[in-house]
Structures are given as structure tokens and as C-alpha cells.
Amino acid sequence: MEQDLWIYVGWLALAGIASGYAGGLFGIGGGIMRVPIFLYLFPAFGVSSEQVMHVAVATSLALALPSSISASLSQRRAGNIDVAFLKLWLPALALGVVIGVVLSRYIEGESLQAAFAIVILIAAIHMLVSSDSFKLAESLTGWLRTFFAVFFGGVSTLLGLTGGTFVTPILNAFGYPIHRAIAVSSVGGVVISTVGAAGYIVNGLGATGLPDHAVGYVDGIAFIIMAPIVMAAAPFGVRLGNRLNKHVLKRIFGAFLVVVALDMMNDVWHVV
Asked: pTM (2 decimals)?
């Protein structure tokens, strides 16, 4: 049993390195790496199949907080933060997170997994085929900005993400430079992870089929092991992202999302 625990801790450490680096590089909080890993790990360590998606989502959101904070500070030092935009974006984003937390009480885990895979694949296709000449508009303002913030806040919370999977390509399509779009995603991740994780902790109190070390739906051991590793790895991803050509960064982001989406689809529908 002790050996199994050390194996578990080892996998958690590797997941922390990978997700923290990816979070800094792409402004995604690392959730699209963590959630699939958790879906494989958690059932082997006491999480019931009915609860595994909720535990994966909640733990991913909790872990996104340190990586989002670290990435945001790095983005600020790089001069990519748009304070005026964030003042209008973040309150609507927080409202969406609250809506997502409430809805999570009524949506089954398998439905969340299917939605996770589909949304990521759509985002990946956009990042791979779009070009600078493709613009929905020159800027994102008014009611449309509010709508996207609320919508992305809710969907991200349901799927254990911090918004970068959706926010980065959409802002880019509305004329926002890729590096600034990633910075908005990083700062927004702080709001989504804070409010979302707190909501999942409350929702999970008294739930059955959870490991003994869970705090609500958040896996306590995973958070303790991975949090410092995620924070240490995120700045390295930010530095690489700021050095890469924006076209290269978009293609890497898109290819990465395709791999994750296809794996998730296979897990849900057993294609292979």
C-alpha cells in the first residue's frame, strides 16, 4: 500500500511539472493536461467512477490557482497585462463561474467528459487553421464582451479549465494579439480557479465515493504535492511563450489541444 502511495505521488509530481509548464506557455492553467491524467489516476486510488470527473475538475481548478498567479505575475513583468480590459472582463467572468458551480450539481460526470472533448477539439481546429487575416472584429466590447466572459467562466468551471482554451482563440479572433490574449487568460484563471474551487469544495461536502483525504471534491494529496511544482514550472512556460513567434505559438497550442481532445473522445466513446 505504501508503495502504491509513492507511485501515486510520483505521477502527481510529473503531472505538476507538465501542467505548470503548459499553463505558463499557453495561458491555460494546465487543466487540459491535468483533467485527463486525473481521470486515469483517481479511480485507482479510491475515487468512484460516478464522482471521478467532479473530483478531477475540482482538483484541477484548485491547482490552477498557483499556476495562474505565477503566470500572471510573469505576464505582468513582460508588459502584457491590459488593465482596462480586465476591469470590465473579470466581474462578468466571476458571474459565469458562480453559474457553472451551481450547474455542476446537476450534470453527470460522463456528460462533462464528452463536452470537454468536443469543446477542446473545436478550439484546436481554430488555432490550427486560422490566420491573422481571419478576424471576427477589430475589438471585443460591450454586451458581446460580457456574454463571452460569463459563458467562458461557466463552461471553464464545469470542465476544470481556467478559460485559456476558449479565451485565447476568441480574443485573438477579435483582433487581440496572441501574447496579450494569453495574459488575459492567465489573470482570468485566478478568478475562475478561486471561485470555482471554493464552489466545488462546498458542493462536495458530504458526498460519497470520495477518498478519505478529499476536501469536498478537491483531492487534498494531489493539491499538496502538485501546487508547489506547478508554481515553479509555470514561469518557464511563460518565458518560452514570450520568445516564440506568435504563429509558432498558435500552431503548438492547436496541435496540443488536438491530442488531448482525441484522447478524451476515445475515453468517452471507446472509438479505439
From this structure: 0.81
